[in-house]
Specification:
Blueprint: E1 6-15, E2 25-34, E3 37-43, H1 49-52, E4 55-60, E5 65-68, E6 70-72, H2 84-91, H3 96-101, H4 106-115, H5 118-133, E7 137-143, H6 150-162, E8 169-177, H7 188-204, E9 210-213, H8 222-234, E10 240-243, H9 251-256, E11 262-265, H10 271-280, E12 283-286, H11 288-293, H12 302-308, E13 312-314, H13 328-339, H14 343-349, H15 352-357, E14 374-377, H16 383-387, E15 394-399, E16 402-403
Parallel strand pairs: 1-4, 1-5, 6-7, 7-8, 8-9, 10-11, 11-12, 12-13
Antiparallel strand pairs: 1-2, 2-3, 5-14, 14-15, 15-16
Helix pairs in contact: 5-6, 7-8
Length: 405
């Protein structure tokens, strides 16, 4: 492909998501790409003659489906070890909270992550990222939270940044307030002080794009979460929150008060939390992989979110304890099956609204002026992507206008 030249992709069904609702389907559509940006999108027959001048390459897609590139806006992709033994314990009746309080859970992953070198963590993270890329991933969020010291959090964030070399956009989030490390046992407020102190240094090193926290009975209180968010605001960093996963702590309303990019999980979200998110424009990120893996029964309030106009995104929540999944397409199917989302809502959740959850308005749709990240699928209609599971119809991924090998 000629760098910076005009490239035409034509003969496709486009799912543009250009409007706030519906697929935005364009039959026999075309995309004109120049300089990594979508220069024109629409029916091939309507491509203006003036834009045809200087086209260097033409790709005839033969009726394939084209969607925006997929975005995973909530992962914990960088970590050491695995926790299959805990999976077995849960099947024998132990709860997530019981395992965590017994020293398992996040702390066991922290020990493995701290013991691993940066090179070892990178070697573990690359195949996880590649598995997601094989299903159309173009933008990835990676949280820290398994280091729980400045040195180890920075190590994990550096590895996350390096994943961009695979041909991805990577956004990094500091989740220092994920769990209490053993050296701070009985001193939770002191640990929160430490996390707040790391943020300016991590930003100075260029390692962090946002700040997250786990506001829950087994993690951090709303008051402690507020302190982390105040430190993030002082450092000029946007916030996100693991909110209302296991109980209603009022975290979503708290996060919305800080204009949070997103609140994630949300099974126990209250009407007050929904209203606060709607006022703030905060995205609801639903995580069907964790819902499935933990065998949850409390459904997130999807209808209430719809009624309030809260954008709904989806993500894998890839992590070793509660969602060890690496399939974006499976998340589409799970969201429809468990949460009764429509296929259009689900795919919008991995494109338009996932981009919103990361504060990236330059992607997630097929529209003039946006980044040329898109996927080409062997499918006739976008609903097929949510219908199948165990089948990957991806033909090709294009990132910033360049086909990925």
């Amino acid at each position: 492909m000629t760098d910076g030249g005009k490239v035409l992709w034509t003969g496709a069904t486009l799912a543009t998501f250009a409007a706030e609702r519906d697929w935005g389907l364009v039959a026999d559509g075309a995309l004109l790409v120049e300089g990594g940006v979508l220069r024109w999108v629409g029916p091939a027959a309507q491509l203006p003659s003036g834009l045809r001048e200087g086209i260097g390459e033409v790709h005839e897609l033969g009726g394939a489906l084209v969607t925006p590139g997929l975005i995973d806006c909530h992962t914990h992709l960088v970590y050491g070890g695995e926790r299959s033994a805990e999976f077995e314990l849960r099947l024998q009746g132990a709860t997530y909270e019981e395992i965590a309080r017994a020293g398992g859970g996040i702390r066991s992953t922290v020990a493995a992550t701290r013991a691993a070198s940066e090179a070892a963590l990178h070697a573990l993270a690359v195949p996880r990222a590649r598995a997601l890329m094989a299903e159309g991933l173009t933008t990835l969020e990676v949280k820290s939270g398994y280091g729980l010291s400045l040195e180890d959090e920075a190590k994990c964030l550096r590895v996350a940044r390096q994943l961009a070399d695979l041909g991805l956009t990577v956004r990094t989030t500091c989740l220092g307030a994920h769990a209490l490390p053993p050296e701070f046992e009985g001193r939770q407020d002191a640990y929160v002080d430490a996390v707040c102190g790391w943020l300016p240094e991590l930003k100075r090193q260029g390692l962090v794009d946002a700040v997250d926290a786990f506001c829950e009975r087994i993690a951090f209180t709303p008051a402690q979460t507020r302190r982390v968010f105040e430190a993030a605001r002082a450092a000029g960093l946007p916030v996100k929150l693991h909110a209302e996963q296991l109980s209603d702590q009022g975290g979503a309303a708290l996060a919305a008060g800080f204009d949070a990019l997103s609140c994630d999980h949300l099974e126990w979200l209250s009407d007050e939390g929904v209203a606060a998110m709607a006022r703030a424009g905060t995205v609801a990120v639903l995580l069907p992989g964790a819902f499935y893996f933990l065998r949850e029964t409390k459904l997130p309030p999807v209808q209430a979110l719809r009624d309030a106009g809260v954008p709904i995104a989806l993500a894998t929540d890839h992590n070793p304890g509660s969602s060890p999944g690496l399939s974006l397409l499976l998340m589409l199917n799970m969201a429809c099956t468990f949460f009764r989302m429509t296929p259009e809502e689900a795919l919008r959740g991995l494109t338009v609204n996932a981009a919103r959850a990361l504060g990236l308005p330059d992607r997630g749709r097929l529209a003039e002026g946006l980044r040329a990240d898109f996927c080409i699928w062997d499918a006739a209609h976008p609903r097929e992507l949510a219908y199948w599971f165990g089948r990957n119809p991806l033909r090709q991924t294009v990132v910033a206008g360049r086909p990925r090998d």
